[in-house]
């Protein structure tokens, strides 16, 4: 493993997702467990606790391994900025396991750097475009479902059995609206809103 310090970074979007696949890929490279940092958080920005801890460890003798470029981040601009921060400011190397062209240890000449930067720009653009497309498809799907009459959110609670009776008593001035709402176990505002909606 020579004199370089190997680090691994793993990110999954939610706490329910499993990081095992990424972990196996990194452990197969003999990266020490203490040097593997895992965030269970969205990739929309780089304000991630484990990622920030890891950055403090990186220097010119470090190599950072990630399984795929979208594990590092999804925003085109942020991803490019972060890549340059790690490679140019911290002088660490980055290796993207599933994309051998993205290995800054190789071809450190002008052409190698140009190819690496070009591939990174292309992949980060594709990652952000895909995220945008997913959001758009979700919005279109929801709009189409609403047109078909699909209801979203929790179904409304059924009215209490004594609701109509309490409304009648209130309208006949036998009880106050506060008393009517209390009989139905509702806040006054909810009682009145339900009454107006049904136009009793």
Features:
200 residues, alpha/beta, Rossmann fold, 4-stranded parallel beta sheet, 8 helices, elongated
Number of helices: 8
Tell me the structural class. alpha/beta
The CATH superfamily of the largest domain is identified as Resolvase, N-terminal catalytic domain
Largest sheet: 4 strands, parallel
- Percentage of residues in strands: 5-15%
Biggest sheet: strands side by side, in what order?
Answer: 2-1-3-4
Distance between the termini: 79 Å
Share of residues in helices: 40-55%
What's the architecture of the largest domain in CATH terms? 3-Layer(aba) Sandwich
Mean pLDDT: 81
Summarize it:
This protein has 200 residues and is an alpha/beta fold. Helix content is 49%, strand content 11%. It has 8 helices and 4 strands.
Describe the model.
It is a single chain. With 200 residues, the protein is an alpha/beta fold. It has two domains: 5-133, Resolvase, N-terminal catalytic domain (Rossmann fold), CATH 3.40.50; 163-198, no CATH class. Helix content is 49%, strand content 11%. It is built from eight helices and four strands; from the N terminus they run βαβαβααβαααα. The protein has helices at residues 20-27, 49-55, 69-72, 76-89, 110-147, 163-171, 177-183, 188-198; strands at residues 5-12, 36-40, 62-66, 93-96. The protein has a four-stranded parallel sheet with strand order 2-1-3-4, sandwiched between helices. β1, α1 and β2 form a beta-alpha-beta unit. α6 packs antiparallel against α7 and α7 (177-183) crosses α8. The radius of gyration is 28 Å and the shape is elongated.
């Amino acid at each position: 493993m020579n004199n370089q310090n190997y680090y691994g970074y793993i990110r999954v979007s939610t706490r329910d997702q499993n990081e095992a696949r990424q972990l196996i890929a990194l452990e197969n490279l003999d990266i020490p467990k203490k040097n593997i940092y895992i965030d269970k958080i969205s990739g929309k920005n780089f304000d991630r606790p484990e990622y920030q801890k890891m950055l403090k460890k990186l220097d010119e003798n470090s190599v950072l391994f990630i399984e795929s470029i979208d594990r590092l981040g999804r925003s085109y601009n942020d991803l490019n900025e972060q890549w340059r921060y790690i490679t140019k400011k911290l002088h660490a190397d980055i290796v993207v396991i599933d994309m051998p062209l993205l290995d800054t240890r190789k071809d450190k000449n002008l052409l190698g750097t140009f190819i690496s930067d070009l591939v990174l720009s292309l992949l980060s653009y594709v990652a952000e475009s895909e995220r945008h497309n997913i959001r758009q498809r979700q919005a279109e799907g929801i709009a189409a479902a609403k047109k078909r009459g699909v209801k979203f959110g929790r179904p409304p609670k059924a009215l209490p059995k004594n609701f109509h009776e309490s409304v009648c008593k209130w309208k006949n001035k036998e009880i106050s609206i506060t008393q009517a709402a209390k009989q139905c176990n509702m806040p006054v505002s909810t009682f009145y809103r339900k009454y107006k909606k049904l136009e009793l």
